[in-house]
Amino acid sequence: MSIEVKEVSWAEQEVALSEIRREVFIEEQHVPKDMEWDGLDPRCRHVLAIESETGVPVGTGRLVPDGQIGRMAIRKAFRNQGIGRQVLQKLIELARCDGHKSVFLHAQISAVNFYLPAGFVAEGKTFMDAGIPHVNMTLRF
Question: How much is the pTM?
């Protein structure tokens, strides 16, 4: 399977980006809608992972202007195939291009080991967000 990960605008790809996040966060993880739709999306840089042969959107993530990476989501049928790493690397690349000296994220505890190989370091205590345990993680360039 061939995957293309590219930057897209919220205005042009809101439907595809929202659908993936709705499936993963709202339906699978039971994140409340008002927490998922925080109003920041129009100001963020977004990436979309697309299955090249079919054109099906399979994953997404965003970079908030303050350097926070978030809303990383891969559709269930496409997980464990390296797509998340491609999305993460694209977001890191965008942050570097924007001149950030570091990026940070709130990792679900179950995903901490996903971020460690990319150089992220866990910092601080575990906290709850949308009923899911998280920890802050930072990557300094």
Answer: 0.95
